Amino acid sequence: MAVLPAYILIVLGAVARRCGLLRNHHDEPVMHVVFHVMYPCFILDKILGSEAMRDGAVLGWSFGVGFCELCVGLCVGLLFGSLLRLEKGNGLRTFAFSVGIQNFGFTALPIVQALYGAAAVSVLMVHNLGVELSIWTIGVMLMSNDKKIPWKKLINGPAISVVLGLMLVGLRWDVYIQGPIRESMKMLGTGTFPVALIITGAVMLDMVKVERPTLKIALGGTVLRLFIIPMIILAGAKYLPISTELRQVLIVQSAMPAAMSPLLIAKIYGGRPGIAAQIIVFTTVVSLLTLPWIISFGSKWVFGN
Questions:
Q1: Which domain holds residue 257?
Q2: What is the CATH number of the domain that holds 32?
């Protein structure tokens, strides 16, 4: 039941787009406010006061695992993409990138919060910083076939808020951020995910029209993203020497559909956006059925209960 609200909001966004209540030109300014104002407030509110964030080992593992997830996913995507007879210049790199990284942000966060609480959310913030770094370094180099890294993309509201929050927690200055300032931060943060998920649903409806789906891409991408790669992530959650909170984060991450980032990067760096769109749409739809099962199975296997 914890996963349903997120998907209901995605469907609501698609309906709003279909009915003309949410138009294309609304997406960018709304998401600009969400990404640069509301989301950073949410991140700070969850990191400040978190005891888990005072543990260097937790921070190191969370960041490192987040970074390595894309590396592992890309290798799996390239291997299986080759078996599907995809080639460089004909969709192989876009396919690998799209199946290689899960939706680590707006869909995952409310589920982590509902299932495991604030401590796991704060760990997820650091994990996501590692994911962002891997996307804008390894992901971009793969997609563009270039060694130049757009470092400026890493200087954004969420990344700055994670670093700032960790500094305040490390110096123990976070105890002084209370009262009206903290309450305002919490209020802004609370609206992040309903708004972002509604926009996500609207954008996904637009994606359906981008390119006619093919069985090879849709089925292959779904099997990799929602069945094969989850088992690799769950194995890491069970056998790596990591904190309970990070294990909880990885259980949810293993169940996530494909992220939106590959679509954007494919557009910017000469990939195949249509392939990314197919994988995003199909994995999101199918994950409505698989996500509860993967989380349930993962929790029992990883924690043995």
A1: 4-303
A2: 1.20.1530.20
